[in-house]
Amino acid sequence: MGKRTEFLYLSESDTIEAGVLDADRCVRNAEEVFTLLSKGDYLMGGSNHNSHGLGLVFPKDSPFPNMPLAGPDRRFVAMPAYLGGRFDVCGNKWYGSNAANPSNGLPRSVLTVTLNDKDTGEPLAFMSANLLSAARTGAVPGAAAKHLARKDSKVCAVVGCGPINQSCYRSIVSQLPDIREVICYDLFEEKAGSFLNWSKVELGISGKISSDLEEVLRNADVVTIAASRLKPLYFKDEWIKKGATVLVTGPVHTDESFWLCSKIVYDNTKLHEAYMQEAAESGNKKNYYAGVIGGPLYTLMDDHLLPPLCESVSLGDVILRKKPGRTRDDDRITFIACGMATFDVGLGYDLYVTAKENGIGQRLVLWDDPYQS
Amino acid sequence: MGKRTEFLYLSESDTIEAGVLDADRCVRNAEEVFTLLSKGDYLMGGSNHNSHGLGLVFPKDSPFPNMPLAGPDRRFVAMPAYLGGRFDVCGNKWYGSNAANPSNGLPRSVLTVTLNDKDTGEPLAFMSANLLSAARTGAVPGAAAKHLARKDSKVCAVVGCGPINQSCYRSIVSQLPDIREVICYDLFEEKAGSFLNWSKVELGISGKISSDLEEVLRNADVVTIAASRLKPLYFKDEWIKKGATVLVTGPVHTDESFWLCSKIVYDNTKLHEAYMQEAAESGNKKNYYAGVIGGPLYTLMDDHLLPPLCESVSLGDVILRKKPGRTRDDDRITFIACGMATFDVGLGYDLYVTAKENGIGQRLVLWDDPYQS
After folding, report:
1. Which domains does chain A have, with CATH numbers?
2. How far apart are CA A71 and CA A237, in angstroms?
3. pLDDT in tens, A218-236
4. Nearest chain A residue (CA) to B126
5. Which of A57, A128, A312, B19 sits in a 20 to 30 Å window from B291, CA-based?
6. Where does B84-162 have alpha helices with state H?
7. CB-closest option in B12, B41, B166 to A367
8. What ipTM goes with this model?
9. With a CB-CB cutoff of 8 Å, which residues 267-296 of chain B face chain A?
10. Do B121 and A97 touch (CB under 8 A)?
């Protein structure tokens, strides 16, 4: 007789019940993951242990009429990870994305996470991961705001008013209690308007919308950038004031001088080393750089204008006080985040534990007695 | 109001009810997938569209006491794919493996497959994939036996008597009705004995066991190799008789002359091109080659002793009659199979359709109305 294997299924509403919308809790989870990244107690994919994930790349054209073609936000990606510390668990995020989804009543991306016993590989949980993924993505700049932003930050600029930045902003204000004004910018004005309204109603923070990016940024103490990839976003160095903290979660273009006159903190320098390695191997570095958030920084490193990643700072180093973060009120600090499966596994694990303890979700049987063992 | 999303959960016993043990059906499914591979109507991971998958690579040692370490069969792998034709669906296989599992009443690997709508990314099904994966792995040499082996093949040698070769052998004999004798070889004699017994009882084919590999191979018309990676397997060129078909599903070492005097047919030359590309990028080609089934062949190609992959034959080419397979009764044909996610998606899809039509499995709700859309 073999071993019976059960696991827990969590729908989206189960993940809400398990606490995925508790921004402060998600930020604490992300802080813990950042310390594990800094210590090295994790694995992501590949022999360098730091691959972001493996995607299906849809072709630009195809002789096969049904094959999905390249298009806005169209991709499928698998993102495996092991996370150590008290988590000590393996998992995989798997998602499909399509910019056309919202017109069909669906989120742009549809995500699931599987958690697995690190030794046996048995599934522990399979869960809807849309809110989980948004929460962990938002919690990352939330943790960065806590450790890098001026405590007296009052004005927050939101550049890109989609669900990701909603989650980022919620996390950021959960860590900076003095924030009293939000300035919302989006390519689509009505999205900026809905965001502002949501901020007022849900978080009690009012402000304004603007389609003038300079006006949006000029007075911001904290800037969170998570704009659509559909149109390149550009801001001038001089629009960012002294002492500001710029939290970058989506691609952005700016003046070279901005990068050179800003203190840069990365989510995980090892991840960016893996990106640079992949770019070098791809045979078309420039093209590869154009598709990743850190691209402009990698170019400056190749040109020896920025220090190499091995000499740069990860947020976990700051949290653990291994390297300094903000040292002066006047520092302009830029935080670069690319998304790592370790955060999905970390937050997913805490939701799983909460769900198990509180009888949330459905228990499913993989097998009573495995057919082959 | 957004769109409600439901999907189907299939346990291992649900997959049995949906037909995963029907070897002939699985072989027909694999044949269909082979034709799509030959036509190019599929995508696997990466920009070359042919990556096998992305794994967590456990380190040899670690300063963290809980981190899983490299060990026999220890890995986690994510394998995404799109499969065209009538399937027209995306999916991902995700599994963890550990040679210590059987001593805990578990299969060596624990596998799941997720199928997704190619456009929206919504999950269609999440299923136990142990039998699915074994069935598709076995169906591949089954399809190869049908198209490459002599129809009058009578003696089948089974090298490695684990669950994978059980599935291979079941598929092979489903396609070669004249097989009347099996010769079983395994490092562990009792495993060979159980296999022989199972063959008698389940398939009505008797034979013998032997620990002398030469004796096992000398008289075989068909050889199926799926031995453990724990100990390298070596056979001599002269042990394989004229007219034999050697179906390679696991790593094997043999004389150079065997590869040079055998007609080689691949599961998919494009997959092997991707392996060779990855090996070149890894910076340690020899080491990479040592870890993959095609390694000895890639070495001979590098040395220009075998024709390059672009001039070689895929099984789908033979099925579609684009290239010749067996042309003479005396041909020794070797078939090389490495495992592709396209087969998991193809067979998984047919099980999903059967389950849906017959009310097998559990319907699960991802969301009634997505929180963010």
Report:
1. 5-133+342-367 (3.30.1780.10), 140-340 (3.40.50.720)
2. 31
3. 999 999 999 877 778 999 9
4. A126
5. A57
6. 130-148
7. B12
8. 0.94
9. 281-282
10. yes
